[in-house]
Amino acid sequence: MPRSRFSSVLDARRALRVAFALVVLVAVGVLAVSYVTAPPTFPERVDSGQPVAEPANGTTVVATQGLGRKGWHQSVVGDSPGELVAVASDGSVAYYDDQYQSYWDVDPVEGTESTVMYAAAEFVPADECHASTSCYRNRILETNVSTGETEEVYSYLVRNEPSIRWHDVDRYDEDSLVVADIAEDRAFVVNTTSGIVEWQWDAQSDFSTESGGEFPTDWTHINDVEVLDDGRLMLSLRNQDRVVFVDPEQGVQKDWTLGEEDNYDILYEQHNPDYIPESEGGPAIVVADSHNNRVVEYQRVDGEWEQSWQYGDAVLQWPRDGDRLPNGHTLITDSNGDRIIEVDESGNVVWKLDVNLPYEAERLGTGDESTGGPSAVSADLQSHEAEQNSGGGLSLRSIAYAIVPGEIILGLGFVLPSWMGFTEALVLFGLLGVVGLWAVLELYWLPWSVGVSNPLRIRRKD
């Protein structure tokens, strides 16, 4: 190679290296500043003894999902692995517990002011559960969030596999619970005194295994059950994109089903549907339409379900609960938005609690879930869509959400630390891309080449 050309090549490479180094330094600096200036994590705010939210109209109890065994996620990114927290009306923390890996459904106990029943998952090592692999214990507990007194109602040991932790359990009668059994694709009623299963509905009795998710590992992902006053059960089959009504004697009432598989305009992998009865302006269903990033309501009209209301905003991402309160407000659990919000009749946020990966929230004194709340039609609620926050124009966030598959965004919401927002995530992946490109170029620029021959030859490039 001529000396002048060799010199120009070296100059070009040097310029590229300087550019790469500057980009890396700037990106690392941005991430470092974001980390150092990030607000305290929720456990740190609890430990401070200061209020964690503005005053609200009652105590709010929140269950958070958490990630990994106790201590794992906290040691890596500073977030708690799972929490049950009660925030008093003045914004102070009335109760806090993080002894289990994850907390799921939480409901007020009828006839009490401060006691809740909830589902929690406890990791059990193989030697303790006397199995070849580790296990989980699904625990149903009742806790008085004023006194801290806790009593176990029921527990059940399961193998450690994906989608085996119960997400929802409701009181069926004085002696029995009804369980949304995510692991076995069924709902069952169990007597908590005898441990005997008194009734069950198996999804295979009404659905083909060709529907939904992969069978048998995560076929239906039944994540919610609600006992209605008329004796029917309302179930959420997440992977079938349906809410179904089950008559204990006859099975699924198909003409009452809300949603169609893979018709994502109606529902897309929903969570926690709440039934609003006729006495409150129903029949209606308020449901967290999770992958559509909204909470939506459907009204029963002439034997069909018609959309009557929805809420979305520029931050709302993968909501998993929406409770209609008696005053017409809606309490929303924004899981990947890391917050609980209360929105009024016009869709304005009137209260907020920042907390990592929440699953469900209850406002004590308002009834179980949406029991005491009016339908959107009867209360003349105004819908609110994400575009109303952004002025309807395109943003970098909206473009990214349109291009990147929802499953990837959802997964990133699980693994990225809470201090890392949308901008930080873009910087991180830009940094990884630049470093990767730099590494490839450096390999290409190496003065040596490898030839596949017998014997192997390594020679210097010309």
Automatic annotation (TrEMBL):
Protein name listed in UniProt: Arylsulfotransferase (Asst)
InterPro entries the record matches: 6-blade_b-propeller_TolB-like, Arylsulfate_ST, ASST-like
Keywords: Membrane, Transmembrane, Transmembrane helix
Transmembrane parts of this sequence: 399-419, 426-446
